[in-house]
Amino acid sequence: MLIREWKPFVDSLGDAGPDTIKCVNVGAGDLFFDDEFIKTDNRIEVCAVDIGYEIGDGEVVTKGCRRLAKDIDDYTDIDHFDYSVMMDSLEYIPDDRGYIEKLASRVKSGGYMFFTLPAYKDLFSDHDRHVGNKRRYDREEAESFFSDIEDIEMIRSRYFYFSLYLIRRFQVRTGSKIDPDRKITTGWKYKETGFVSRLVTGLLNLDYKLGKHLPGLSLMIICRKK
């Protein structure tokens, strides 16, 4: 659903050139999201940034239409990206404002910046501390935060995943262990095209569609570089 919501903004960047639209994804991880986005437009070239990549510092590794690096500054051959993506990564960075300003300096004028953030400060828990989260974000505060950054304009915001919000709210209120095995992340054991995966995906997509004006475990922010 995020791809469906963000794609019209990416499509509006068609004047970027006939051959390529350059995206930088900070905290890209396994690139699953980027691979799905690439399927919607073969002009997209992903420059993935993640400190977890097993490559040398300052090195950029090319894999098809994807390029991998540990830091955005490693892409010295690119003056400005057409748009940026940062999904559930900003909360790990001590100076979130400083990083957004740095990221904005690498996005072209008129380009879009897409963010997802963990929502609701009062849901901050031992699990957040365990995985290294510095903070969670309330919508109004996040809107003010992004709007206050000189080089960007806040375009849209919304919470999403109301069902997951209810579960987490219950866990925090009752003191339930959110990650009792302290695994931080767990692999999805079901086939991507299998019944369980399709069912869960369908339910979450329905949740996203119907929960536009409801609380949610996550917060989406879309900004535009001035």
Overview of the molecule:
The two termini are 26 Å apart. Strand 5 (81-87), helix 3 (96-104) and strand 6 form a beta-alpha-beta unit. The longest helix has 16 residues, at 195-210. By secondary structure, the protein is of the alpha/beta class. The chain has a single domain (2-225), classed as Vaccinia Virus protein VP39 (Rossmann fold, 3-Layer(aba) Sandwich). It has helices spanning 2-11, 32-38, 96-104, 126-131, 139-147, 162-174, 195-210, and strands at 21-26, 44-49, 61-63, 66-69, 81-87, 107-118, 152-160, 218-225. 27% of the residues are buried. The protein has an eight-stranded mixed β-sheet, sandwiched between helices. 31% of the residues lie in helices and 24% in strands.
Provide the descriptors you would attach to this structure in a database record.
single chain; 226 residues; alpha/beta; Rossmann fold; globular
Give a summary of the structure in a few sentences:
This protein has 226 residues and is of the alpha/beta class. It is 31% helix and 24% strand.
Number of strands: 8
Instruction: Tell me the span between the first and last alpha carbons.
Output: 26 Å
Radius of gyration: 18 Å
Q: Which CATH class?
A: Alpha Beta
The CATH architecture would be 3-Layer(aba) Sandwich
Counting DSSP H or I runs of 4 or more residues, the number of helices is: 7
Shape, per Cα inertia axes: globular
According to CATH, the fold-level topology is Rossmann fold
| Biggest sheet statistics | 8 strands, mixed
**Count of folded domains:** 1
Order of helices and strands: HEHEEEEHEHHEHHE
Order of adjacent strands in the largest pleated sheet: 3-4-2-1-5-6-8-7
Q: Which blocks of ≥5 consecutive residues have pLDDT under 50?
A: none
Give the rounded overall mean pLDDT: 91
Helix content: 25-40%
Beta-strand level of the residues, as a percent range? 15-25%
Question: What structural class results from the helix and strand content?
Answer: alpha/beta
CATH superfamily placement: Vaccinia Virus protein VP39
